[in-house]
Design brief:
single chain; 230 residues; alpha/beta; Alpha/beta knot; four-stranded parallel beta sheet; two-stranded parallel ribbon
Length: 230
């Protein structure tokens, strides 16, 4: 991260002790980048880690995973990130999973873009992932190569971007409305949390859109509760 000019490191880790120890010994564990390690912030969940971000990019090796969403090659996704960063008030997160298991479907549901680093696939084997540090370096290099250093020179959109926190509130309102209207009982597959979160991404592409939908859903909830028997 330091080599490519980035400094905001956030982590969601069930095994925090080793990372905290590395922070204490940051001059040894992150030579030349001790400040990045010392200032890294821990979060209890992905939702909270990306709450202030307007775009979250999830990395996936795909492999045997069944995905219902398109996955962009890194070079193409980098251009989407550059365009997002041209907007006033925007903040982009790149989300990486563990080397062994990658990101879960629930974690990926917080991402508006899914990206894959193209790799050579030998006929007798398939390397499903690369070293985590290498994957981070490749992604950040591609951002720089794609024009990140000049991103603020691009035309800026004036519509305020939506934050992950607002999108999560929209998701919860959608789920509450589905439950209040009995939709979740009749169509449980459509009411799964990661499916609803993907729907919220489509409905709330901007802060104004999200506010409009949240107002509508609150009215739906009020009506449903008013009409509920007893």
């Amino acid at each position: 991260m330091r080599d490519f000019g980035f400094s905001d490191l956030r982590f969601v880790n069930d095994y925090a002790a080793p990372f905290e120890a590395a922070q204490i010994e940051s001059t040894k564990s992150a030579v030349g980048a001790a400040d990045v390690m010392r200032n890294a912030r821990a979060f209890p969940s992905v939702a909270e880690a990306v709450a202030d971000c307007t775009l979250c990019v999830g990395t996936t090796a795909i492999g045997g995973r069944q995905l219902s969403r398109s996955v962009l090659p890194l070079a193409e996704a980098a251009q989407e990130v550059v365009r997002e960063l041209a907007k006033p008030g925007s903040r982009v997160a790149f989300l990486f999973g563990s080397e062994k298991t990658g990101l879960t479907n629930e974690q990926l549901s917080h991402c508006q873009l899914l990206v894959n680093i193209p790799m050579f696939a030998p006929s007798d084997a398939r390397h499903l992932s690369m070293n985590l540090g290498q994957a981070v370096a490749v992604c950040l290099y591609e951002l720089g190569r794609g024009g990140f250093e000049n991103v603020r020179d691009l035309p800026a959109l004036h519509e305020p971007p939506i934050t992950a926190d607002a999108r999560e509130r929209l998701t919860q309102l959608l789920m509450n409305a589905m439950e209040a209207t009995d939709y979740s009982r009749r169509f449980p597959a459509n009411a799964r949390e990661h499916v609803v979160r993907q729907l919220a991404m489509q409905l709330g592409r901007s802060q104004d859109e999200a506010v409009t939908w949240m107002g509508f859903l609150r009215q739906v909830l009020r009506t449903a509760r008013k009409d509920a028997p007893g």
